[in-house]
Amino acid sequence: MATMLSGAAIMDAALLMISATEECPQPQTKEHLMALEIAEIKDVIIVQNKIDLVDKEKVLENYKQIKEFLKGTNYENAPIIPISAQHKINIDVLIKTIQETFPTPERDKGKDPLFLVARSFDINKPGTAIKGLNGGVLGGAMKTGILKKGDLIEIKPGIKTEKQNKIIWEPIHTQIESLITGNQEVSEITPGGSAGIQTKLDPALVKSDSLVGNVAGLHGKMPETLEELNLKQTLLERVVGSKDELVVEPIKMNEILMLNVNSTATVGTVIELKKDSIKLKLKKPVCAFKNERITIARMLGARWRLIGYGAII
User: Which of 104, 5, 10 has its CA nearest to residue 307?
Assistant: First the structure.
């Protein structure tokens, strides 16, 4: 769920995959549908996959289950496209439906640039000479504004260091060497689609997705780095994703919760409880504006389960 929620933060629309070979809904399907609603993703297409593995009657029965499952949700009238990914059946219909159903959102390019980092990696091959090394690469998507080749950028929260026996997070400053989107090098990137930013950073700083969850933008025009979060929370009635219909119990003092904001997943310990708000001490800080929407998950059994959402106050 942490991966799904982090990915949803950089998406405008979604495909919800459901297998025609299983009863609908499965616990994970419920969880993902609720996550899409919380993430406020309005445009969704339901993809009914594996139709080649069952007979016509079973496909139609599964279709009716999907329609019943969607009733009363924001996606009650979402298109349902039966496909076989293995045999490429109806893939053309799915692509056509995506083009007709998912409008390109209007972007405000005048806002301060903010790039959500969903990946970070080293593109150098082993044995590359020092003179031939390329700087570290950030992968993700622009949330707002425009970044251009040559821009000096700040990456927050940055890297974890220790000074005077105290753990702190220091922002990173670097320059954009090149920009790639759609496998093409471009002079600037704007919101919409994924992109790669090659920087002048030491590749050791970005390897193995070490900067995932950071945000990049212009110095002085970035959100605050928050080591504590004040949230106005809304809890769901039932735990989403659990096989049993468990009631969501109130959040408790000192409870550890998983939080997703933008492309960041972190955990926090509840240090203050009020009637409709909570305060958490974060293990890993986040860089976010006030009113940003955050999903809240609780450890139940061996998995984090979605129990609600909140807004930074």
Answer: 5
